[in-house]
Specification:
The protein starts with 17 loop residues before the first strand and ends with a strand. 12% of the residues lie in helices and 37% in strands. The longest helix is centred in the first third of the chain and has 15 residues, at 93-107. It has three domains: 38-354, no CATH class; 367-459, Sandwich (Immunoglobulin-like); 465-548, Immunoglobulin-like (Sandwich). With 550 residues, it is mainly β.
Length: 550
Amino acid sequence: MCTKRSRFSRRPDTWLAVTLLLVVQSVNAQSMTEGELHSVGPETESVCALAPVMHDTGVRYVAHESRHFKTLEPTSTFSVTFLDEDPAEPWPVAARAAVEYAKGIWETVIVSPQEIRVNAYWADRGGCTDAPVTLGSAGARALHRDFGAFPHSNTWYVDALADVLSGLDMGGSTQPDIRVYLNRDCDDPDASTHWYFGTDGSPPAGTIDLVSVVLHELGHGLGVSGAGRVTSGTGTVRYSTRPYAYDRFTVDGSMPYTGLMSYPDFSVELGAALQSGSGGVLYGGSSATSANGGESPSLYTPTTWKGGSSYSHLDEQTYNNTTNALMTPMLSTMEANHVIGPVTCGVLEDMGWTVSMSNCDLSLPVELTDFRAVVDGADVVLKWETASESDNAGFEIESRSTNDRFVTVGYVPGAGHSVEQTTYETRIPDPGAGTHAFRLRQVDLDGRSTYSPVVEITVEMAAMFELTAAYPNPFNPSTRFSLAVQKSQNVRVDVIDMLGRTVATLFDGSVVAGERHDLHFEAIDLPSGVYVYRALGESFAASRTMMLMK
């Protein structure tokens, strides 16, 4: 089995949310003076469907942060035409920006003198509330074969790659190379799951990162897809007796030098290979193998054929939570994959694309092997280990309670450069009762960053009440703290200066037993000095101090 350890590793069975399905068929053949073209209808496109089980991971692979992304020179041009399936429900401005951002990432990876045209539709895909939810679809407009410049004869090439290989605009300047459809019904911020249009790679809980989905779908449109399918236990890797360029490189994982094309079409042997589990089918191209550390990458071939998901993606078990996760078949809520990944770039290069390999994997070279949280009295202790580090400035500690956004609560310097195991530990003092989520933001020496998986831990309330320490403290101009009680009651929380004057009332109402109430204090108009925040309930009174330093 081909394996690759994630920098931020996580057991593959702990999350599942969005399944990215690829359906491959072709229709409406028509002849040309040279070679052959097959027009492709919407039914041939890859389909992204939201699975019934949602799990927020907080995993984030974003090498192309704004300041860094702008320094990369584009090596191709993707032009996007935005089309509204229903004029009454046009493309949101923020959604357009997300699509433009995604195509900008591809422009720094693909090297092409030919313009790559994309039609992007804001479309009805059957709602966004009842699983499975279709997020979108994408595919090449047409397939081409047997033109002189193509690397393989009797092989189907997608529109965009055919243009590059032939040096011609084979589809004509008025036709798109790729068509993408995205579900407008998921544009509902009040739904439990909906689109996140931001480009910062930090989708909040319960949201699907649109940039990641668009990047994935464009990958299929560029040719990361095969003709493989299984019917009644028999398999094939050809459409209309010919393979896609992708199929030329697939091999049997149990016999690594046996290409899948050597099996008879619609044979039981090929059906078994396509349903042989993780590591059962490998992508044997030399570029992809080199990008995978000298081992042929594993494709997604679950033991039960999943139409639209099996075979045309990288293996979920091997590549989830890694920089190669973009073209795996699953994406969780609160996850962002904004790097193409070296293995995907290798796959594209094997098929005939020229790619900027240096821009395929701009992730940070820190290999996290363990990250856990334990309760110690009223505190939480975070512990983690790295197997190796390079250019590691350090780790920002981020925390979230209930449905809040993550906030920074600490920092631990990194080892810089290390080829040995390094152990880290930090204490979060008195975070308060309730369930807390933590993650690490690993920062490189040049400012680039990426996030670890999220760990959660529950802190029980030991006393009749809890009033946590303010963080940050000292602060300027804002800080936060929390309150919890064992018995439901009315509570008033005031901020008092050193002269005994109440300068702010932060809360005056009912607090439910066992629930943590988070409070935020802004001191923009107050002078520097020591302030007291006091909680007065029906059965308790408590106070703590904080210092404003301007």
